[in-house]
Amino acid sequence: MHPFPDALDEWLASPLGRALLAREQAHVREALDRVFGQQLLQIGHWGPREAFLPHARTQRRALVAEPGAVGDFVSHATSLAVLPNSIDAVLLPHTLEFEPEPHEVLREVERVLVGDGHLVVLGFEPWSGWSLRHYLSDRGFPPGLHHLLSRGRLRDWLRLLGFEVLEVRRFLHTLPIARLHGGRVEHYFERAGRALAGQFGSAYLLKARKRVYTLTPIRPVRRRTRVLVGALEPTSRVRGPLVLREDRGRSPSV
């Protein structure tokens, strides 16, 4: 998943990385507040293990890491060693941006999620102050970032896979400059961004749910035979000997 896990950990430990991680932790905690079940799976290494998993409300939680990173078990995001329909919630913290085939990762997520299971995705917007620094960096910004995926494109992919998008929020309204974070300047930019309905945030959180549509069997309609007025019913039967009626006005023949 991440080509430079050591460089990424070093960047996340920097003042700018810690500021980003703290803001993402707050949003993930709110997104997972009403997500319950047996198992949550975080796919992708992003900061320490305790960054997001303690916020899960499920009974169990695990981190799937790429080779070379620390996690509960190692597996590729496009071929998870997980049974189908066995996970209640999946967290992708910028995982799609490190994968060369992000759509295949979403297919694998759809496979392992149970019906009505939840998916939470963190990502950077392609057109923002943070993305500009990413495009100007040799190794990506943060290190190892492969590409950026817009929330609109992600929403379209999820709908094609049968997901219902529940929530999309944008945040990180300040520029990627360390001295702008943690003070009055950051507070001013965040208030201004919220006042503008979050349209200019450099990062986003998307929450979706896997929908399962059940098929309702349709019973065949029985056609009833139409009976003409004055005609005999086709199912009527005559029991006993056949008796001929005598015509009125005539005497019986001898």
Write the layout of secondary structure elements.
Blueprint lengths: L4 H8 L2 H17 L7 E5 L16 E6 L7 E2 L12 E7 L1 H4 L3 H11 E12 L4 H8 L14 H10 L2 E9 L12 H12 L7 E8 L44
Parallel strand pairs: 1-2, 1-4, 2-3, 4-5
Antiparallel strand pairs: 5-7, 6-7
Supply the CATH architecture: 3-Layer(aba) Sandwich
Shape: globular
SS summary, helix count: 7
What is the CATH class?
Answer: Alpha Beta
- Number of beta strands: 7
Q: Residue-averaged pLDDT, rounded?
A: 80
Distance between the termini: 111 Å
N-to-C order of helices and strands: HHEEEEHHEHHEHE
Largest sheet: 7 strands, mixed
Which superfamily, in CATH terms, is the homologous superfamily?
Answer: Vaccinia Virus protein VP39
State the secondary-structure class. alpha/beta
| Tally of individual domains | 1
Q: The CATH topology is what?
A: Rossmann fold
Question: Could you characterize what this model shows?
Answer:
The protein is α/β, with parallel strands linked by helices. It has one domain: Vaccinia Virus protein VP39 (Rossmann fold, 3-Layer(aba) Sandwich), CATH 3.40.50. Helices cover 28% and strands 19% of the residues. It has 7 helices and 7 strands. It has helices at residues 5-12, 15-31, 95-98, 102-112, 129-136, 151-160, 184-195, and strands at 39-43, 60-65, 73-74, 87-93, 113-124, 163-171, 203-210. It has a 7-stranded mixed β-sheet, with helices on both faces. The model has no long low-confidence stretch (mean pLDDT 80).
